[in-house]
Amino acid sequence: MKQPNFFIVGAPKCGTTSLFHYLKQHPDIFMPEIKELHYFATDLTFINAGSKNANTLEEYLTHFEPAQHEARVGEASACQLFSHDAAHRIKAFAPDAKIIITLRNPADMIWSLYEHRKFAGREDAPTVEAALALENDRKQGLHRPEEVGWLEGMYYRSNARFSSYVKHYLEVFGTENVKVILLEELKNDAATIYRELLQFLEVDDTFTPDLSVRNKGQVDRSFALRKTLRKPPRLMKMAGKILPSNIRHRLVGKIVRMNTTSKSSLKMEDTLRQKLLDEYQPEIEQLAQLIQKNLAILWR
Prior knowledge:
Helix 8 (162-173) packs parallel to helix 14 (270-291). This protein is 47% helix and 10% strand. The chain has a five-stranded parallel β-sheet, with helices on both faces. A two-stranded antiparallel sheet has the order 6-7. By secondary structure, it is an alpha/beta fold. The longest helix has 22 residues, at 270-291.
């Protein structure tokens, strides 16, 4: 049986889904049908069913049974960047593994991850500022939403401090086996970044895939309306029972669609974004030295 020899380890909301689909198209690369296996991240906490798609080695390897002649076999689990265990466990499992890390401006990553969790029903703080203010309390088990999923995903400020996570993977695998991709570069020139990735993976770099963006963010126009639909008050439940179930489902679906919009139409306030960038400036400078890229231009 073929086993994975390269891993997209995150960070979340930084283009991992697009890279997963781009690489999956290549004839010399096999990727499983399911993304987010999270098998190696034993120190991260996944609370509800469905958050982790492989709990045992046997279960994990079944996802790669269809692999045949491909030179590269890979997977993508966007939270494993933040796992201290994952790097060492991957190294023990596949000593010559190639590691792909995707990053983006930390302020934009915080905003995008917050909106993603809120849309998924795993964040009940009404604003990103409120969620940031709750972070320390949540680490103590307080003020957590009812549905959590990936527990550490709520620690937005901590997750955006990329340098220590990247440094850990560089130390475990060596700089020659780690490729860092910036989402801003991927958006500006996906074809060039894709070709660099193929060269990094040592497969045919002349292949041209469909490079359309995947996993575009969606948000609620009204957070209060989404909460009401998820947990309707008693009178609304009683009124809903009067309607035939097919009509009720169509009506709710229509309301959800009307309340949903593209994330690109909603932006973080400039004052908050600048405040976060100022806070992360030392971190950005440290990361820039680590990955040898001019982040002052890309991220300011």
